[in-house]
Design goal:
There is one protein chain. By secondary structure, the chain is α/β, with parallel strands linked by helices. The chain contains 15 helices and 13 strands. A hairpin with a 6-residue loop joins strand 8 and strand 9. Helix 9 crosses helix 11 and helix 13 crosses helix 14. It binds adenosine-5'-triphosphate (ATP) and magnesium ion. The site of adenosine-5'-triphosphate has 16 residues, from helix 3 and helix 11.
Length: 353
Amino acid sequence: MQNVAVSKTLAPNSDRFVQNAMVLATLNENDPNPAIIGCSQRMQAVFDLVDKVADSDSTILITGETGTGKGLVAKAIHQYSNRSNKPFISINCGAIPENLLESELFGHVRGAFTGATVSKSGKFELAHGGTIFLDEIGDMSPDLQVKVLKVLEEGEFEQVGGAKTIKVNVRVIAATHRDLPEEVKKGNFRQDLFYRLYVIPIGLPALRDRRSDIPYLISYFIKMYNNKNNKNLDGISDNALEVLMNYGWPGNVRELRNVIERLVVLSGSGQIAANDLPKELRVANGYQATQSIEVTDDGICLNSAVTEFEKDLILQSLEKTKWVKNKAAKLLQLNRTTLVEKIKRHRIQQRAS
Ligand SMILES: Nc1ncnc2c1ncn2[C@@H]1O[C@H](COP(=O)(O)OP(=O)(O)OP(=O)(O)O)[C@@H](O)[C@H]1O
Ligand SMILES: [Mg+2]
């Protein structure tokens, strides 16, 4: 597979979108703001939304599974907003112990708690004029949720241990991998804060729900890691692409990126072949594909989906029985000759491990 043109991609230069261009050839991989690749209808809708909301000051809530690009989209919104020359301050609310998070967000005065030997500005203050990105906001304790709500409503807060009210002008973007309405129902997340955040929701689809993006992402990452590692990998074979297209990608784009990085670093030259792919991915492939065939927004071809389904089940049975065809045929309740015919028809071959 050669580099492919991306019809519309959020690119890290002044043009918001690059259309009908050989984007993969023109993107500058040294740009500190990476491109966001996406040709599927669902990602195009996300790009349109980013375009529409960037310049407003509305609060944005980005949701999506891990590795779907929530952080990238938050940064892009800031970059395309009229606050872009002001700070973009990011804080991962899930990664900081609760007792430190308040002081990280709002700052503290000297002597506010043991160890507070000097006063310190918090992230809201540092983000003044720009954007604050409250990542993993679903992990925040209810006590802090109240304080964040106050900043959102009134644009002001006090430092920990401080009496002075500090006013800030900050655009808030929040993200979570959690199902916030569900967390509200369970009593873990405040309903008032949820509604205050849920002004403009942006839902990032899982990679398995936008498989048409996979070839573009692969090309992009191959180019990126070729350049980083001074390698010259020449794309990916159709067989290998098929395995990657059918995989479930629980870690979404981040997982795909890591797989490609590993392949580029370990590769010689030529194309990535199916045999080069990590074994767990190839084995999972047959299994995952049968588990997750679904009609996506891009539509699917029923005939080829059914054919793929049959092929996957045959492959699974062969892997399970270490390619003893008698045993595999039994597992599938077929006679051996029928199985052999099907193996031929599907051109299934045992891969070297
Ligand atoms: N559409 C995309 N185009 C190009 N690269 C992407 C895209 N989406 C994700 N990535 C890659 O995946 C990595 C992970 O993305 P990001 O950190 O934004 O995900 P996330 O949704 O914030 O994940 P988490 O919930 O784990 O924080 C990025 O650093 C980037 O390399
Ligand atoms: Mg993130």
